[in-house]
Each structure stands twice: as C-alpha cells, then as structure tokens.
Amino acid sequence: MLLVIESPNKIKKIKSYINAQILATVGHFKDLPTDAMGVDLDTYAPTFILDKGKADRIRQIKTAAKGQDVYIATDPDREGYAIGTHVFDEVRKIARSIHRLEIHEITQKGIDEAMKKSIPWENTNSGLYDAFLGRRVGDRVVGYILSPIASNALKGRFSVGRVQAPAVRLCVEREREIRTFNPEPFYVVSITLQKDEVAFAAKHRGGNLTDKAKAEAILLAVTAARTADILKVETKETRQNPKAPFTTVDMQAAASSQLKISPEIAMRLAQQLFEAGLISYHRTDSVRIADEFIADIRNHVGRSLGPSYLPKAPNSYKSKNSQAEAHEAIRPTHMHPTGDIHGVVSKEGLGADHEKLYTLIYRRTVASQMAAAVYDSTTVEIGCAGEPFRATGRVMKFDGFLKVYSEVREGDKDDEDDNQRLPPLVTGETVEKTGQKLDEKQTKPPGRYSEATLVKALEKHGIGRPSTYASIMGTIKARNYIVVKKGKIHATDVAERLFDFLAKDHPWIIDLELTRKMESYLDKVEGGDASWVTFVKGVHSKMKFARPPQRAAAGPGGVYPPSPAQLKFGTDLAKKHDREIPKDALESSRAMSAFIDGLLGKTAPGDAGTVKAPATKKTRGRSGK
C-alpha cells in the first residue's frame, strides 16, 4: 500500500497511525511553464510540465506504485485534487488500484474515517480538477496578456491578475476616500450626574449638533442648573451570543487583529498545526462542527465550568456557502483542559506563535458551544433646564461564553457611556448635576483597511476563496501595490497608476461584481454544472481575444532574451542605482527579472541578479492570483 500526500512534514505523524509507505509530492510537481504562456489560445488546452527539481521524487513515487494499492491523500480542496489528478495520471497504468483519500484531521480517528470513506479515483468529483483548470488557465491568460500591456503603457513592471486587480481597487479607492475627505465640525453636549456617590454621564438627545451657537446655548442653560429630573427608566435583559467557529477568513482576520499576525503567516502556522495533528483542515468556509466533537466540547464545558455555561441544546451555525457543509470549521482535533495548551503544542515541537494561534482556535471553538452572556441594559431619559438628555448603561449578569473568548472587532470602539455603571434610578426623582461640557469634534474619514479588514472585504465582495486570501495579500504586498504601516494598509503610487490605467482601458478586470460572478461560475464548474473552457473563453473574450505580445525566439538552450520593454526598464533602473547590468541579464529574460527584483529590494541586499530562496519550507504555489 502506497499513500501519496503533499507535504513531507505530515509523513511522521501519519505513519504513527497507519502502516503504509508514504511519499510526498511537495506541493505541485506539474505546472504551466515559467517562460511561456503554456496555453493554446484556440482550444485553451494547457501544457503542464514537470518541475525538474521534483523529477526524482516523482520517479520514486512511480517506482513505489508499481503493483500497489495507491491512496492519493493530497489536500481536500481544488488545488489538492489537482495535484492528486497529476499523481493519478503518472501511476494509473502501473498501480493495482487507485483510491482518493481525504484527510481532514491527522489523528487516528481522522485517518480511520478517511480510509472508510475512500473511493476509487474514477468515482471522485472531477469537477474539482475542472475548476482548478478554469482558475489556473484563466489567470495565466489574464497575466500573460494584460501584464505586458500595462507595463508598456505605464513604462514599468506591472502585474495584472484576475483576482489581485479587484483587491488593488479596494485599497486605492479607500486611499482616495481618505485623501479627499473634508472633515466637518460637530458638537456634543453632555452633563455629569451623581446619586449615592455613583457618577454617570448623559448626552443631549439632539446627538451630534452641527450648529455651534445652539450647542453653546444648551450648555449655557444647563450650566445654571443644579439638578436634573429622571423622566423615564427602562431596564431590559439583553443577550450576547457566541460567534461561530473559525472559517479560514475569520481565522486570518482574528489572527491579524488580535495577534498581529499577517494572513500569510497565519496560514503557514495553521498548516503546521494541521500537519502536527492539532487542528482540522484549515482551508474551509464551513462553520459546521461534527456532532461527536460538539458532544466532546459540551462534556468539557460542563466538567470545567459547570452546567450553567451550557445552552440547553447545542448551538448551530449556518455556512454562507451551502457546499461548505460537507466540511468542518477549523477546530482542535481533541478536547483537553485549557491549561494543557502549552504542553500540547510544545510536544509537537512547535513554537510560541503556533501556541498563540492554537489558543485562539481552541477558545473560539469552545466558546461557540457555550451559553450567551447576559446583561441588564438600562436607558434613562433625563430633563435638565428644559433640555432632553439620555444616559445608557449595561451591567453584566452572567459572563457565559465570555469566560473563554472575547474580541473587539476592528473599527469598533467601546462606548464608555453605553457600558457605564448606573446607580438605582426611579422615574420622577431628582438627582444632582455635578458638571457639564461641550465637546467640539470633527467627522472622520473612512478607516484604513488593516490586513484583517481587507481580508473580510475580499470575502464580502466574493473575491477569491479560502485557499487564496493569503496569497492575494502576499501578492499585492510583493508587487508594491500596498504597504502596511503600523498595522494599516496604504495604497502606493504604483497601485494608483495601475488602477487608473485599468479603470480607463480594462475596467472589467476591476469590476467587483464580475469578479464575484466568476468565482460563482467556478463553483458551478466544481459541481459539474458548467464548463471550465467556457469560463476561460469568457475571460479571454473580455480582452477581445487578444494574444500576448510576440516574444523573440529562444536562443541556445531555450533561453529567451529580455523583451524591449524589460530591457529598457532594467537599463533605466540600473542607471538610477548606478549599477552595471550583468551579462547574463542582457541575454536572459529570467536573469533580467532577477536583476530588476534585486534593485527593487525583492531580494537580499547585494544579491541583485540572484533570487534568494525562502527560509521557510516550500508550499504549493497558487500563482496568478
């Protein structure tokens, strides 16, 4: 029996649960060529080529597959299925049998369940591979046609992607909203009251006043008053329900806002937690948790906190995408006392950041099955010098799920007046007024996106999918379309130039609604209800079936020379930095790209002309997004 997976980091953990030979592809081992489009623009048929660096690994897999029952256990999403399809193509004629195995958690239970549900590869949903083809081929066509056009028009190096372009639009438009915003003054009149040595504040019912003279008149009137009248007191019980367990985008957003960890790093940490068998599969838009695990959570909460922290029936949540219900939310793979978190993570050889993310996932999961927090919320109508005021306050009666997990959403500010402590008040009584003030304020521009709120915005507009949010963020940062300063996103001049060009000449590529429809169409392709070729043809038609600019013929060894635009850009950049262009960069498009990247600071200082390998382990690529 041969088990084929993606990441070699899973091998040791999986081997502890199953007696099989296990080999890893290390992500995609076939892809479109790096120095050519690799797509027939008449039929849209792609040409996938073998990564030369993985040739020995694939030979090893083929040798091990001869006469064996092969279980392809690449990740349970489109990209994983695509890798699995390429494995199937390599071993279909030499293996005794080939099955699909979807591992959603690397535990004994998870492996056993996956084996029970494994099916012959021929019976799997090939729509997953078709959706991958639509995404990969469509993105390649866009990149190869529009990127050179943008670069030539803007006299620089610009990358245009089907999904990254709408993300750039969101950032540029927010940048311009902030820049052009004209603040307007407004005024807030409030009084301070006291009863039984408890001080509390009340604001004028007029709210934010735009007439300064009127605000000053109100202030003058109440200044002379010594008391205020309680006109009406209304107290009602309010409840705050827990949030659903994490989807991919919610996890990335929470990691960014609460842990200050970027979406790309959060996904890398989650990948390693998954590989260590500590969490379920981390690319998901489902909020469902298996019934058995809900029972485990309820038992844990009942034992550790008591029955009052459990709702009478399990909390249920509905996923936005009905297809997501086949999977689960991101959750721990087993329940344990909260105090054991450090030991659980460190036992797997993982570090402090892994522990922080695991703690976040653990607490959110547990809290999702706990009772609501309960408050007494009070609203008091007050009269002072003939002017109407209102005081609000909230007192927690029962902490519920907040015992385990709480968060403040970005962009929200706790209103101290709303949550202030109020003394016992009775309609008709008079209380002492101890002070008054007039605050002059200004309207504020829209808040900048953080990485957390941008990811949520991408989800809201239907841009991308759980597996691509992090790569979208990484791409627009790497292309210098955005920079992150003090946790906030700033669109660059480069992004604004690209946006203006696309808005004028290629507006379809930044059309948010069209992007959402394209993602929905790919979902139909995945379900077998639409054709990936039709999808790519539709994308190509938006560019009037254009062809990429002609490239010079390849020289000796298949090396392509730099294009005229690339050569000019590299020459201008070299002059600016007082650098001499290496000989190989004058002869090779790839070497020229590396030289330019070095001067643009995309490689380590002093390494211009060479691409520095990343320090982290290699993960499967999702280029073109």
TrEMBL record:
<dbReference type="InterPro" id="IPR000380">
    <property type="entry name" value="Topo_IA"/>
</dbReference>
<feature type="region of interest" description="Disordered">
    <location>
        <begin position="601"/>
        <end position="625"/>
    </location>
</feature>
<feature type="compositionally biased region" description="Basic and acidic residues">
    <location>
        <begin position="430"/>
        <end position="443"/>
    </location>
</feature>
<dbReference type="InterPro" id="IPR006171">
    <property type="entry name" value="TOPRIM_dom"/>
</dbReference>
<feature type="domain" description="Toprim">
    <location>
        <begin position="1"/>
        <end position="106"/>
    </location>
</feature>
<dbReference type="InterPro" id="IPR013824">
    <property type="entry name" value="Topo_IA_cen_sub1"/>
</dbReference>
<dbReference type="InterPro" id="IPR005733">
    <property type="entry name" value="TopoI_bac-type"/>
</dbReference>
<dbReference type="Pfam" id="PF01751">
    <property type="entry name" value="Toprim"/>
</dbReference>
<keyword id="KW-0413">Isomerase</keyword>
<dbReference type="InterPro" id="IPR013497">
    <property type="entry name" value="Topo_IA_cen"/>
</dbReference>
<feature type="compositionally biased region" description="Basic residues">
    <location>
        <begin position="615"/>
        <end position="625"/>
    </location>
</feature>
<dbReference type="InterPro" id="IPR023405">
    <property type="entry name" value="Topo_IA_core_domain"/>
</dbReference>
<dbReference type="InterPro" id="IPR003602">
    <property type="entry name" value="Topo_IA_DNA-bd_dom"/>
</dbReference>
<feature type="region of interest" description="Disordered">
    <location>
        <begin position="410"/>
        <end position="446"/>
    </location>
</feature>
<dbReference type="InterPro" id="IPR013825">
    <property type="entry name" value="Topo_IA_cen_sub2"/>
</dbReference>
<dbReference type="Pfam" id="PF01131">
    <property type="entry name" value="Topoisom_bac"/>
</dbReference>
<comment type="similarity">
    <text>Belongs to the type IA topoisomerase family.</text>
</comment>
<protein>
    <recommendedName>
        <fullName>DNA topoisomerase</fullName>
        <ecNumber>5.6.2.1</ecNumber>
    </recommendedName>
</protein>
<feature type="domain" description="Topo IA-type catalytic">
    <location>
        <begin position="125"/>
        <end position="547"/>
    </location>
</feature>
<keyword id="KW-0238">DNA-binding</keyword>
<dbReference type="InterPro" id="IPR013826">
    <property type="entry name" value="Topo_IA_cen_sub3"/>
</dbReference>
<dbReference type="InterPro" id="IPR003601">
    <property type="entry name" value="Topo_IA_2"/>
</dbReference>
<keyword id="KW-0799">Topoisomerase</keyword>
